[in-house]
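User: I'm curious whether this sequence folds into something compact or stays loose and floppy. Could you predict its structure so I can see for myself?
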Amino acid sequence: MLALYMLGAGLILSGLFMGLTWFGGRVVRQQGPMLGFVGAALMMVLALLPFGYLTTYFWRAFQANGWAERAYQLCFTAAVAVPMFTGVCCALLLLWASLVAQRRQRRRRQRRVRPRS
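Assistant: Here's the prediction. I'll summarize afterward.
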């Protein structure tokens, strides 16, 4: 039962990562790309924090004695892996949006400053 609760919490955390990505994209469009880079870095750190738990649960699943215990440990593994994968993907998406915003900002600056002939 605890594994299912953890899986539900992992899905809620995945939704939080998606919401933070949406909010970060809006901030990037309004304020500029620098806050997007900071947000993407913080989100990546937050997503990779439980990597130790993931490896522990994965190792325990391979050392389990029966199929029920293996399924139980794989539920724990999924409960940690789903939000980690979602967080990493969302951080990369926000990083990409920040890079695009930086490129657009650079192009706007180049259009404004024209060389004299």
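Summary: The chain has a mean pLDDT of 89. The helical segments are 2-31, 33-48, 51-62, 67-112.
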